[in-house]
Design goal:
The protein is mainly β and 456 residues long. It has a domain at 359-433: Thrombin, subunit H (Beta Barrel). The protein is built from 1 helix and 33 strands. The protein has one helix at 37-59; strands at 66-69, 90-95, 103-104, 109-113, 116-120, 127-133, 137-143, 146-153, 168-176, 182-187, 196-198, 203-205, 210-214, 220-225, 252-260, 263-270, 278-283, 295-300, 307-312, 315-320, 325-330, 335-340, 359-362, 365-369, 373-378, 384-389, 396-398, 401-406, 409-413, 420-425, 435-440, 443-448, 451-455. A hairpin with a 5-residue loop joins strand 13 (210-214) and strand 14 (220-225).
């Protein structure tokens, strides 16, 4: 028996008719807002505009401005020499003005120029990986077995009162040393001319107005200095002992910097410390956060042109002229020793030198390059032990010996006693400036100004 329906009711169980042409009397489908031609044109324009905007953003992005060519096969560390070599001769050289000393990583030897960082095979100098940006490099160093690159930005969007308005070193990236793969990155407040100081755990970027310290993932652990901060206007991340309660702030500039054992030491030149520089020491991790430095000691040092020479354990060696002396302090600012020095006057004019004194380390020893000679210090007490006159740099430990660059060659010394064993003749052409050294496997590297030279 079939069920019937009355007129005007819809049979919801009935199957729809198929292929039924629209008759002339059937009403047309209502227009939607996306079926009108002008609406379709508008949608197309929106899509095109979005694509153009994306393209413009991509063109100006860091990703577009970066070239990263990693090594197909990671670089293997070369083997150390089994016997001390009878001679050293040049094997290869490369331009590297952005590295203040040889960047030896345990695998690659790194050179850097312009905006380009190259990971090379230590034995041959062959480029194995490449990282480049459309920004000039400020500096390149090694820490945490990685390569730390710092790039310059122009600072044009900052107010003229900001120390970074003339440009800064704010783009920081770490790379894996064996293949050049990018690891971590951060935007920072480092200033032009920055150097990187590594204590084995933390890296501190130097500057005349601010010091920034990072851990291995580039997270900021403490900032020390006067830097405009839009989030905390007027807040000063400085040493409370150098601040006065009057209307005029005590202005300080930062000079020589050292780091060790989870502490950072800095020479401050403050307007209220008349007649003397100040040594201040603070922990590499802020007290409660990165913007609250925990100062452990701060003391005037009794003279100008102070230089932090060495930081070992909880002791800091500071060199001073007038009279010439090496003074040892604890991290609490207590003086524990003082030793006379006999150096050319220019060696101890720290204000004219860079923020980091040139040193090298060996087991139980620190080798300090003064500018005219190398002085060996006992690593524990920081006591001066012996001197190499006429040196061009602090040297490097290599195959159980100490190599010290001198005019026309490299002296080979006993690393503990300083006794001279011999000299490797080295022709440096017309270069007579300072020489920074390091080694990787059987290779010895010299940084001669803007050039890295490999010797074997």
């Amino acid at each position: 028996m079939q069920e019937s329906t009355t007129a005007g009711e819809e049979d919801v169980l009935a199957e729809p008719a198929l292929d039924e042409p629209d008759g002339p009397d059937q009403p047309s489908m209502p227009r939607t807002r996306f079926r009108r031609p002008r609406d379709l044109v508008a949608v197309a324009l929106i899509v095109v505009a979005a694509l153009i905007a994306w393209f413009v953003l991509w063109q100006n992005s860091d990703e577009h401005a970066t070239t990263s060519q990693t090594a197909a096969v990671p670089i293997e560390p070369p083997s150390a020499p089994e016997v001390f070599p009878p001679s050293l001769a040049e094997a290869w050289r490369a331009d590297s003005p952005a590295t203040p000393q040889p960047v030896v990583t345990g695998t690659a030897i790194v050179t850097a120029a312009g905006g380009e960082v190259l990971g090379r095979d230590p034995l041959t100098g062959q480029v194995r990986w490449r990282y480049a940006r459309d920004l000039p490099l400020c500096t390149v160093a090694t820490a945490w077995s990685k390569v730390v690159t710092v790039y310059q930005t122009d600072g044009r969007l900052l107010p003229s009162s900001d120390p970074r308005s003339g440009g800064g070193c704010s783009e920081v990236t770490t790379l894996h040393s064996d293949d050049g793969e990018r690891d971590t990155a951060r935007n920072d407040d480092a200033q032009l001319g920055t150097h990187l100081v590594y204590d084995g755990n933390y890296v501190t970027a130097t500057g005349p107005d601010v010091l920034d310290t990072w851990r291995s993932d580039l997270v900021l652990t403490v900032e020390y200095g006067r830097m405009p901060d839009l989030r905390n206007a007027g807040k000063q991340r400085v040493n409370p002992e150098t601040q006065t309660s009057g209307d005029r702030p005590n202005e300080c500039k930062y000079g020589s910097v050292g780091a060790g054992g989870g502490y950072v030491a800095v020479i401050e030149r403050c307007s209220d410390d008349i007649g003397s520089d100040r040594l201040s020491v603070y922990k590499a991790v802020g007290k409660d956060d990165w913007d609250i430095p925990e100062v452990t000691g701060s003391v005037v040092v009794g003279g100008h042109d102070a230089q932090i020479v060495a930081f070992s354990g909880d002791h800091i060696a500071v060199a001073l002229p007038d009279p010439q002396r090496l003074v040892v302090y604890t991290v609490e600012g207590k003086q524990v020793a003082e030793y006379p020095l006999h150096l050319p006057d220019a060696d101890l004019r720290g204000s004219a030198k860079g923020p980091v004194v040139s040193t090298a380390q060996g087991p139980g020893m620190i080798y300090w390059y003064t500018g005219s000679r190398t002085i060996a210090l006992n690593q524990r007490a920081l006591t001066p032990l012996w001197t190499v006159d006429g040196a061009l740099g602090p040297g490097t430990r290599f195959a159980g010996k100490l190599l010290v660059p001198v005019p026309g060659g490299i002296d080979v010394l006993d690393p503990v006693t300083g006794k001279k064993i011999g000299t490797f003749p080295v022709d440096r052409g017309g270069y007579t400036g300072p020489v920074e050294m390091d080694f990787e496997g059987p290779m010895v590297f010299e940084q001669r100004g803007a050039t890295l030279v490999a010797l074997r």
